[in-house]
Write a structure and sequence with these properties.
The structure is a homodimer. Chain A contains 7 helices and no strands. By secondary structure, the first copy, chain A, is an all-alpha fold. Chain A has a single domain, classed as Up-down Bundle (Methane Monooxygenase Hydroxylase, Chain G, domain 1).
Chain lengths: ~240, ~240
Amino acid sequence: MSEPTHETHNQHISQQFNQNLSELRNHFLAMGGLVQRQITDSVDALLNSDTSLAESVAATEKSVDEMERMIDEECTQIIARRQPAASDLRLVISTVKMISDLERIGDEAAKIAKMAIKLSDEGKAPRGYIEVRHISQRVTQMVSGSLDAFARLDANMALEIIREDSSVDAEYGSAIRSLMTFMMEDPRSISQVHNVLWVLRALERIGDHAANVAEYVIFMVKGEDVRHMKIAEAEQLISE
Amino acid sequence: MSEPTHETHNQHISQQFNQNLSELRNHFLAMGGLVQRQITDSVDALLNSDTSLAESVAATEKSVDEMERMIDEECTQIIARRQPAASDLRLVISTVKMISDLERIGDEAAKIAKMAIKLSDEGKAPRGYIEVRHISQRVTQMVSGSLDAFARLDANMALEIIREDSSVDAEYGSAIRSLMTFMMEDPRSISQVHNVLWVLRALERIGDHAANVAEYVIFMVKGEDVRHMKIAEAEQLISE
């Protein structure tokens, strides 16, 4: 066998680097899968008054926190050892940012799970559950869509999520207004309905975090920062 | 004059690097100063029904967004060009994370400013303003304390902020309960008091973000990740 040449050594380094990046991607998607599960579990727990399911969400929260810490450390190691440049560096920096959003999605799901326990203690399904079900389906799809957009590096798919976020915000606003009217008509319901309002708020924030992830996907793919940009401007940029 | 030696060349590089890091610190603190101003302005606008002050907060939001983008880019450049290691890399990565928290503090302040405009249209100062004033003073101090802890790299000061956050959360909880009772007694007030609840919620979240910044300061100084840790564990770690 021949001695390893300088070139094969470089190839080896670059293979290791690609493997590091591909592992990083997989870890990110695994963390995303966990928080997605947390959302569906916490909402199911609420709608079915299933307190033991609600309690399992709190347990998953620890794994999510652990994954965030692990991926943060992984990104720091990749930067320190591999000194990535250009699009590789964008991937690593974006991942550092996106896992904060994933972790916050997990936090919001944990809040919903706590409300599920509270509302189940109070008995009887209150108003607003139809809205919770509907908005939760939409934001869960947004989270899963933003993970898909990340996996496929698909900027158009990411843009779709950002568009969806405005539409969910509008639906959230109208749900809040109808629950407020209901509280005025039946003041005895205030405390219970109020808990449902917090749940809707948590869902709305989950949608915001999914949209943040989508913005970072666009940054990774296009190198363009579309945060704080009007949707039409972002569309223009991406179609270029 | 003598030729520049290899050593003076290295010194020159390292001076430039230190200057980069010190500029980064200053930019971070400047962004922090801006969002701190946004909080006080939005709360003053609310308490004094000052709509023009509330509108100025929206204008500041653009500058904050611009600074976030600029500092993000600055961090990427430092990593790509200077390949920082160890504590320097921790500073850069932590800054990338912390400016997301600062930007979100600005977002919450902007929401308070919007509520200020809404509540001023509805006339008459509603219930809960005493609580808003008090909690806003506490979270403003938390934000300014976390910036000081960053500037001085003071882990104990940062820990103080994290401790303060639990106490603010408790005060927030009791304010919410008293406003709920008030709504039940006077259902006509529901819509107005509800806007005050959102303001309190925004303030509580500002406190959370200040505590996040404090956690990153501890990470920068001690290299220890205290997120998701019980306060007693964090105290133990820092005193070591």
